[in-house]
Give the backbone structure.
Amino acid sequence: MENLQDTKVIKKAHWKEAFTEFVKLLWHPAPTWQKKMVRWYSPKQLLRTASEVFISSILGRHADRRSIEASNRPPKYFDFSGIKDDALPPAPKEGYRITREARKIVLPTESNALWIDYVSDLGDGWDSTFAIANQLSQERFPIKLPNGDVESLHRGNILIFGGDEVYPTAVREEYQNRLVIPYQMAFSQIPTNQPFLFALPGNHDWYDSLSAFIEFFGDYEKSDFADGRWCAPQNRSYFALQLPHGWWIFGIDVQLQSDLDYWQFKYFKKIVEERMQPGDRVVFCCAEPYWMYNKMFASSQKKYEKSNLKMLVDFIDPHNELNETDNSIPDKSKHIAVFLAGDLHHYYRVWNRKNNDLNITAGGGGAFLHPTHGAAGKAFRGKEYSTSCYPEKSTSWLLGLKNIFFLPYNPTFGIITGVLYVLFAWFFVASLGESGFSRILTKRGDLLTLQTPLLIASLYNPFLSFLIFAIMLGFILFTYTEHNNPIFRWIGGSLHGLGHIVAALFTCVLGYATYLSVKPADATDVFHQLPAMAFAALVIFLGGWAVGSCLVGIYLLISLNVFGQHTTAAFSSLRIEGWKNFLRLKLDLETGTLTIYPIGIRRPPHRKEWEMQFSSRPDLPDHFALKNGGQIEAELIDGPIELTPVKHGKNGLEVSFP
């Protein structure tokens, strides 16, 4: 009997434990550090983003952290070329000095090449961020080339974060959960030969005036990232790397104003003048693809023409396509070989056949997908341009249709429209008066035909006329358009605003009809009418929550898929985790050829597809792996693109594609 009783107790304990775990699973479906994609349309996030942008814009304009860092720490650049000190040009005797810091790299024994990984727009949802980090962590992985051959790509000796390392805003906790932990768990074993990490801040990193960014990437005393998995030696938010065979990497910090500060410009100018040799080539990394924005936004082009950024590009390479100057290049001049950027969360490569300029947007490190159709897809249409994108424009267009399901994708956004519809109904009924409103309802009992007489009646009321005018003007002014399209702004904004006004009137009439049907017949004072009024307000709120959200989704769908507008707004609502990408660069140490391999991951595995594999070997730590021995399906999405130095030719390079 005692054994039987013990068995019952054990079974009861197991059931209790199982039930507890089930409850935990319901309330905590994943560890707190396995973050979901940011819900950009939640009211809390919208308010937080607006406040962060406003505050950081003011502080960034009047208290630039880059100038503070320049005054506190001497500038330096990092020499990975292996050349001797006496082979360098002598340092200036006076004035602004840049310290050279030589760095050694242990190369793969079977590969006489230097490998560099470039990834941008990283720390968002766990699934997409960890998938990219896991692929980057592989010591090598095979990739199928267009000709059918298979090439093994080695892990980068240098890793470059190209901007926007965390979302939604720069908070230490977000950096830790959305960036550091995924990369720690992907790189479970601290490598013997510590690779190097350099990072550029994007606009999201600047929302706290770069405080958290400096702590994670610019703390030269600590000089490591993710518990020593990388050496992070930079001491500013920008950097210059000298590579073998006359190659350089420039990392540019454009802050929130899309421009360089004085000290940063001086830093790069000095390197170009005193450290670069004739014929050297630059991989120009920037947090924003300004070559794309200059085509998409008229205001961006005007701003760029007056910027220090343009001055630097002109100073390095006065014959690049962005300057639209003569392309007869002197053989021994310095060149910008390729422009790399993120900020747009897709892959988009543009090669100008005429000027031999190569621009690559690769912002697929983990953040929500940006469309490749719309304004971006129309930016480079001339015959002189060769373009490639990931996902394809047709696929991107089909993904845009998902905005028809805006409500289930963004269920909390309707709180905003619901509250606004209730306020509109309150103002409307209060202004017309209950007798006036009832009179219109009596004459026109059909809900579908009441909007016109209500609108006409509101025109005779000064307050309602002003309210409707203010709503329409607000939608027009806040209709953000690419290509600075005033026609779309006025027509699209007006129709969008009118749609919400008509929908608000419909819910107002529905709510008022509900109020009349539930109001007690003997209710003579406000106190007895409150339950009926509250129920009517609830009906209006629910109508505004559903109808208002659906209208926003339809507006975004039409704006993007028909008119090519609202590229960010229309895809941030969908939080698409797929079609991620990064770049793997190979610098051949014999020939000096730089090869770019754009790598894509169409479907990042879901967090439930991973499991912890425990190891009994001291040299192999516990690590995450896909269940049943699965592998992430990585693919070559373009190229490979070969940049071969030549003595004669535009930009001193021969750009070749398969």
Notes: Residues 222 and 232 are 8 Å apart (CA to CA).
